[in-house]
Amino acid sequence: MSRTELAINTDFKDESTQLECLKDDLAKIAGAGFTHIHWCHEWDGDYIYSPYEMDQIREWMEIYGLKSKGLHATKGSARDINVREKHYRKDYTSDWEYNRRAGVDLIKNRVDLAAALGAGEIVLHLYVPHRTIRQQPEAKENFYTCVYRSMDELMPYCMHKGVKICLENLFDMPGEDMLEAWDLLFARYPAEFLGLCYDTGHANMIWQDRSPDVLRAYSSRLFAVHMHDNDGKGDLHQIPGEGSICWEPVTKLLARSAYQGPLLLELSYYGEDPEQFLEQAYASGCHLDSLYRAEKQRMSRSACHPYV
Question: How many angstroms separate the CA atoms of 152 and 242, rounded?
């Protein structure tokens, strides 16, 4: 009997730079039953992966029988995401041209890593500097001009590599600014290049009961998912079922979207028994997968027998 296909983030425990720890975490992930990984190490900052590191990760995945379900790219070095002032390294939204191009190269590096690992998408944060735009409305056009320029350069590269960019819904910026950004970008770029990563925990913090409506509105662009739970207040990255999210509507809407499995858990663990944690996470993921597959099957039956 085959295992239920499920993915989990590689940094569920930490982001150790010790290679033995990285390899051991992959072994634990596979040992718990997971079939796919979502590479999340260096999801923030300006780290550049060497081609040799890409080969090493791929070799480890082959050893443990793991496949890739996307990876988390990075926006560049740390900065105040709410404002647009000063300049920080490798920022694809920057209005300093060389810095913007460096940010594009950073994203291309993650596209290369995704292609090397056999992933079809990368997840990317886009922070709209909403405080600056509220105070200086003219800054909005300049910001999006820079974003468009970067996306224009990334699109042929991504499409050649067969890797989509998926913009993630975030919790540390106003929801209306995020939706406006999606509308502008999705109107400009095709689904073959640009889509959405739906983060269930972030949605629960920003939209709460409205979350399914947002998911439904953008279902045709939904190519990636981060599934985790919380109390609606903090970004806790709990195992689904430990927080306040109602999961049946989420799985039904995922089944009706453009998303192609496996489902992906993005979790955080701070205890001392990672194997037990991963086993609990896998069991929870299997439950979500059963809901997701049941809706897929129900839709298939309805399509074959529309009057039943």
Answer: 41
